UniProtKB/TrEMBL annotation:
InterPro entries: Peptidase_S1_PA, Peptidase_S1_PA_chymotrypsin, Peptidase_S1A, Ser/Thr_Proteases_Immune/Dev, Trypsin_dom, TRYPSIN_HIS. The keyword Ubl conjugation does not apply. Keywords: Disulfide bond, Hydrolase, Protease, Secreted, Serine protease, Signal, Zymogen. It is found in: Secreted. GO terms for biological process: proteolysis. Residues 17-262 form the Peptidase S1 domain. This is Chymotrypsin-like protease CTRL-1. It comes from Drosophila rhopaloa.
Amino acid sequence: SSGIPCGVERTSTTPLIFQGKNLERGQLPWLVAIFERRDSNGPAFICGGSLISTSTVLSAAHCFRHPGRDLTADRTAVSLGRNSLAIHSQGEIRGVTELIIHEKYNIKQSPESDLVLVRLDEPVRYNDYIVPICLWSTRNRMDLQQGLKTYVAGWGPDESGTGNSEVSKITDLNILSETSCAQELPPSLHQPNTLCAKKIGRGPCASDGGGPLMLRENDVWVLRGVISTGLIDEERHTCDLSQPSVFTDVAKHIDWVRRNMWD
């Protein structure tokens, strides 16, 4: 699988101006869907995630542990190489052998260190539809200025609010400075190791917990954040993009990610 660079789409490139554009298969080929295996009525979609190596997916800890949910590795499945949630569509499915939840994550509290590493039961082979995203590194900028365009993607609630959209979508969000974020959000949500972004004007709900907050630098996609809270109203299954969304900052947790991920 070596020789395939991270963060580069191989089939077609995702345009950067969207009002919530549906993704085609092969666009953002690191975007994965995480399912809970259930005895009855088949797997249930839980969260998005990002492929960062042949065996590792990075997602949000709250997808696996929050009040009322304790999803174990053996009940987890990961769908790769698809833009659709339909499991019978072309792509691959993997089981999961291990979950590493960040030790600072606390289900009763805020989005502090809301990260999980998910180990696939068998490494994937990279191809046109399965490519890892680049992890933030010191070559990338640490400080993100207010208004910087970032991108989120996933299978968020569809417009009717009745269920998840069948095909993944992407939308752009603008970074909010720490000061603006602190003014707009309750203190419990705004933590030192989080990032904030919001959509000016309307946009689709392209986001699920666990999905990526991406930067595009020199035509390479870089994983900068993991969707933690905001956007989605879990009860009504709708989302509000005018409210800032909170992301766990991968740059501030990069040592933990690199130390614990698998090849």
